[in-house]
Design goal:
CATH class of the largest domain: Mainly Alpha
CATH topology of the largest domain: AhpD-like
Number of domains: 2
Distance between the termini: 20 Å
Helix content: 55-70%
CATH superfamily of the largest domain: AhpD-like
Structural class: mainly alpha
Length: about 190
């Protein structure tokens, strides 16, 4: 595990924001630290915003719950406390996640009793992708039975994207956002 610094390696922009920065931050969402780092490079921020606009819309083949299972489990497995905290604070209630399920996402597994078959299939796929960078035929079959072919494609992409996000927030040493906790917090 890398040494933790008290300051982010790339400082997020601070207000007041110029018009261009304000425009890209509006596209990204609330001006959290990660978004303010991306906003240092407006073209990057716009590209990320367009990607996120799809996955956080009704166009995605995944439900909010399925998407958040992928994101929360991926960020927990990657030790990305910053991103875990942001997503739990913002989406746990919308995704219908109970306390026992949140604990399982952080430190349990797909076989935990709190999951139904559909949730279990998604979580097993995330765990397997994280461990092997691939899916066994049985895992693929369970996943497509749970979310369909289009949903399976979205699971692969969201899982991969949140590995990249996890790498980013960890390597940047971003501190937790106010009011959030990491996956191993009480």
């Amino acid at each position: 595990m890398p040494l933790k610094s008290k300051q982010p390696r790339i400082a997020p922009l601070e207000p007041p924001f110029d018009a261009g920065t304000a425009e890209v931050l509006d596209r990204l969402g609330p001006p959290i630290g990660l978004f303010r780092v991306w906003a240092r490079r407006p073209a990057l921020a716009r590209g990320v915003a367009d990607w996120g606009r799809y996955y956080f819309s009704r166009q995605s083949a995944l439900t909010v719950r399925q998407r958040e299972l992928v994101i929360d489990r991926t960020t927990a497995l990657c030790g990305a406390a910053y991103e875990w905290g942001v997503h739990l604070a913002t989406f746990a209630e919308k995704a219908g996640l109970r306390d026992d399920q949140i604990r399982s996402l952080a430190a349990g597994g797909p076989a935990d009793e709190c999951w139904d078959a559909s949730d279990r299939a998604v979580l097993k796929a995330v765990d397997e992708l994280h461990a092997t960078h691939d899916l066994a035929d049985g895992t693929w079959a369970d996943l497509t039975n749970a979310v369909g072919d289009d949903g399976a494609l979205d699971v692969l992409l969201v899982c991969g994207w949140y590995h990249a996000i996890s790498f980013t927030v960890r390597a940047l040493r971003l501190p937790l956002e106010p009011g959030t906790t990491g996956p191993n917090s009480p």
